[in-house]
Amino acid sequence: MSGGKISGKPVNILKKTAVLVLIFIFILTGCKSTIESGGIEEKETTTMTITGQDTEKNNEKETTEPVTTPAVQKPEPDITTQKPEPSVPQTNPPVQQTEPVTEPPLQNQPQNNGTPFGSHGTLSVSGTRLTDQYGAGYTLRGISTHGLSWFPDYVNYEMFKQMRDEWNVNVVRLAMYTAEYNGYCTGDRNNQEKLKRLIDDGVNYASQLGLYVIIDWHILSDSNPNMYKNESMEFFREISAKYAGYGNVIYEICNEPNGGTGWGEIKSYAQDVINVIRSNDRKGIIIVGTPTWSQDVDIAADDRINGENIMYAMHFYADTHRDYIRDKLINALNKGLPVIVSEFGICDASGNGGINYDEASKWMSLLNQYSVSYIMWNLSNKSETCAMVQSWCSKSAGFSYDELSEAGKWFVNFNK
Ligand code: IDC
Asked: In this structure, what are the phi and psi dihedrals at residue 90, rounded to the nearest 5 degrees?
């Protein structure tokens, strides 16, 4: 645009043109004074043409030659063609989609038509991962309730719908503690019935919405699953008989063995509970917890349980469990073990402390790399870092972004 870029050629042409115009005016008017003033006008016109500040006035002249005037040829960048900035800053990189592209968008789909279960059907285990009814790899991405006895209100249709439609969730885990507060094995009969009704509600909402649903026998302070093995067998006999035909129900038979419970003990418990489930449901996915709060998947990888459609649980809390536990997961996967992260948090293992975004991101890239399914702990407004809802928010569905905790916001952004 600067004058320095202008070559002599356009100036010469313009000069010639100006002379022609002068002669034309002279012939027309025959008046000397007009010639003088016309000379001045021409100078101005020439200047305008050179600087390109008034291209319209000189249209006629410019049509006679290729448009070489730099000012015309090099327009300012057109801001209207630039990509608009997103109005909400993206704090997380988009999730790398490893799913087959056949999965339709979930929003505004009729129930069970285009929904996760409606599109993918009953899952199986193949190699290290889940596959859908067509044999394509499928990754579960979801959220776990807190203990059903503590926070029953979040088990409702609208909540599940929001998780599916707005948070891109395809599985909900129903966590039923066995020993803690009103646990299934420590509370009374009424309490057991209440818990079974909640599970039934949860399974039905999930089924109506075409979501997968995990029924989680949430052992924790009862560190050895054999402690309540009879109750577990009775429970899973009833549950599997009831839901065998649903196709979207997944059984998690021991959340987190701990307190030194060895893999051998877990395996013998698992074999018995699996037999009970298989007497009713021949194909449903069964998740088995592993030693040390479901961290020792590498041990399970060397001594697998017989049977089909069995997944092994790996749990992590990003600020506590780092490279050492990630290496266990990598080892197990490299040995071909089908692993599911049926529970994780991005704070420390107490469920509190700060969020460790860096470690969380390392974990999630690893899960993405191997297409490992993941389920975040927990859907509640408890005043703890791992709860997904702000503690001051008493709603039980229909959350706005600001009503989510930092952990909740992180999940929603990550799982977009
Ligand atoms: C925690 C809950 C907390 C509850 C406690 C009960 O977040 O509100 O009081 O259990 O003992 C797990 C467990 C899971 C824990 C969670 C966080 O599976 O039950 O929830 N955690 O401590 N394993 C590792 C961490």
From this structure: -85, 115
Quote the pTM value: 0.76
CA distance 8 to 14: 10
pLDDT at 71: 34
Portion of the chain with pLDDT greater than 90, in percent = 73
Distances, alpha carbon 119 to alpha carbons 109, 135, 203, 225, 311, in Å: 11, 12, 18, 35, 22
Mean pLDDT value of segment 299-324: 98
Percent pLDDT > 70 in the chain is: 73
> Residue 256 catalytic?
yes
For residue 190, is it left (φ>0), alpha (ψ between -120 and 50) or beta?
alpha
Which entry of 343, 359, 384, 406 is annotated as an active-site residue? 343
CA of 312 to the centre of ligand 1 (A): 19
What is the tens place of the pLDDT at every residue in 262-273?
A: 999 999 999 999
**Is residue 6 over pLDDT 60?**
no
pLDDT at residue 79 above 90? no
Q: What is the pLDDT of residue 98?
A: 42
Output the six-digit token pair for 324: 């050492």
pLDDT in tens, 374-395: 999 999 999 999 999 999 999 9
| Atom 1 of ligand 1, nearest CA residue | 351
Mean pLDDT estimate for the chain:
82
348 lines ligand 1 (CB under 6 A): no
* Cα of 383 from ligand 1 centre, angstroms: 13
